[in-house]
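#dry-run=false #mode=assembly
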Amino acid sequence: MRFLGNARGAGGDAGPTVVPPRRRLADADLTGRDRAVRGALLAAALVPTLMLLFLAAEMIREAIPAFVYSGTNFFTGQIFTFGNLYITKETVHHGVLAPHGASYGALPFIFGTLASSLIALLIAVPAAVGAVLALTERVPAGLQSSLSIFLELLAGIPSVVYGFWGILVFGPLLAKHVFPILTELGSVIPIFRGGVGGGEGLLTASLILAVMIIPIIAATTRELIRTVPILAKEGALALGMTQYETAKVVTIPYVRRGILAAAILGWARALGETMAVLMISGNLLNGFPVNIYSPFSTLAATIVAMLDSALTDATGMAIHALAAIGVVLLVITVATNLIGRLVIRRVSGGAVLPVGRGI
Amino acid sequence: MRSTLRRGRDLVFWGLCLLALAIVIVPSLAIIASLLQQSAPALNAHLLTATTASNGLQNAILGSGLLMVGILVVAGPVGIAGGIYLAEFASPTRGGILRLGYETLAGVPSIVIGFVGYIVLDQEFHWGFSLLAAILALSAIVLPYVVKTTEVALMQVPATLRDAAIALGLPRVTILRRALLPPAIPGIASGLVVALAIAVGETAPLLYTVGFTDQNPTLTLFQHPIGYLTYVVYLNATLPTQLEHEVAGAAGLVILAMILVLIGVGRLVGRRAVRYAAQLPT
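#status=ok
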């Protein structure tokens, strides 16, 4: 940490050139045509923000009846069923009508979403930071750009292709050769105990999620590491430090906050990931996974998996229940995203943060 | 003794970092290998000439292409215009709010966008399975990306160009059109191409907005489902037979090839943009 002060000082001399503030025209200098064009451009610039507000408003409006019907059961209940859709008997809860036997307890989905994304994060952060350190500090410059292609490749692979690979190749491979070995850990950590299943479950999905969010964490980390002043690194090396010590004392402390922000962003992506998880989660309903290999389900995957049958509910409550799941998902992802961006704005003005998937 | 320990630590640490690099490289190669392996028997001209009804991909390829054109038409102009406003006209406060808006939109899960698109456009507006609904949903996903890349491209235009144009007393729109946009165009184009790559790999926003059909797409905007590639991967991967897996693999390969070509083109154009900006007077 002692090096940090010096490091930042040195950065002023050798770092990127300071961009002078850009000139803006006073409103009085604008012609009539300027004003018209500015108005049109403003309208376009408002679109993303309006879309965001519209999405949130529609989702909440659609979800309210399900929240009223369920009360706290939505957050504490384990049973998620649309009830009997084939008979006309109905249940009324808190003044809201739903098919007989309907129960919208989303706790297992909330648990599955948090568990899978946190396990993914636990794997992805060290992997992404390690890979970027190896790329920027150790790999010869000529090889660096060709190896970086793999990061873009991972970012470009569609979610369904991850699912395809997970369900046909990776999952069965894990279940056959890797999970049986991991059960040995069961004597120390209970969640590794028990049957390993066929490879569709929490650990497979978490591993695939980890691979999927590595690009977004790595892309941010790489941009941050480029901002580390070279003089500070060279100074550390000149003091006789090994490259590991240089990384530990200069590079990593310099980018630590940024990595935290990148991790939060990657987490937000893992929380909202739909198709890959849907394909390899095993879609467990009405319960919690018994161990780390066991099927489970997430908020996002459940919306896709159950929308078809929700449409057959004549009372419309099933759609409201899925909208309620969507609201919870939206709140969790938007909150994590905002926190990540607030953290990084303090570090770097937000310039390095990717929008999109880390491409 | 101490130095051996330090060198040992150094070795272990970089060994672990190289292992992490392997975690990045191995899955991407493994995924491509398994796509090739699964789809090998199906990779022939039949894919292009037959529709998904008879294990081809023609309708899905055309459908994905049509969706991309739609995104170019909708998200392109809106995103570029928004980016220009943020880079050239917005006050810091207003710019900050709008930036927070599009950054937050970028973090909204795609299934939420698909769900609302379905509820509002397909159901409440009675569009049915609709090409337009799908294009709007996908546009919501890539819009933040187009806005951001446009903004960044304009920010990178040398300040001296701007100052010189202002000093000439030109109207703002003329400055924009004659001095600022030309050097920014490669950067904007690069962003647009990568946005297409992001959009074409999406599935969740399309599932319920546009449905799926074995027939070739038409330009009908409403009440008409469209086939597209990612759905074929999703559906066929979860079906039981080998033949279906082959078609899923082939669809995955086609879509990955499209995405990689788009990213590659985007990168090339982007690099040209950087080189172009470097030779401008500063």
